[in-house]
Amino acid sequence: MDFRKISADMKEHALHLLTEGWELPEIADVLGVSLISINRWVDNDDRHGTVIPPSYHQGRHRLLNTEAISDLKELIDESPEFYLDEIGEWLALYHDIPMSTTALHDNLRGLGLTRKIMHRQAADRAPLQILGLC
């Protein structure tokens, strides 16, 4: 049998047929699913109360929270000449978020705050600062 998405309704219908006294091979044959799938649905229903198990977030937790990101953007906007190690020290001191320069670089890149963009923003502001408009 090929992989295909099976609706929650069909899974619940399979469990209903089980409670009505149908045998597993009969249900699998009628619905065109495997015995393993039906057993998994029964297990999910027993464990979680539903045929669809809860989704667990996988992956690493974010190092930067919203407040730190907001303050970081403001810091970079005010001082685009800071180096990564200086920004890292600032994060550790003011937000108690120690992180490696590599992790900081990856996070800044993910936020769209690359050195090239920061220098372009600073260059765009420089003429305005000279004229006293900023």
Automatic annotation (TrEMBL):
Pfam families: HTH_23. It comes from the Eukaryota. This is Uncharacterized protein. InterPro entries: Homeodomain-like_sf. It comes from Laccaria amethystina LaAM-08-1. SUPFAM superfamilies: Homeodomain-like (SSF46689).
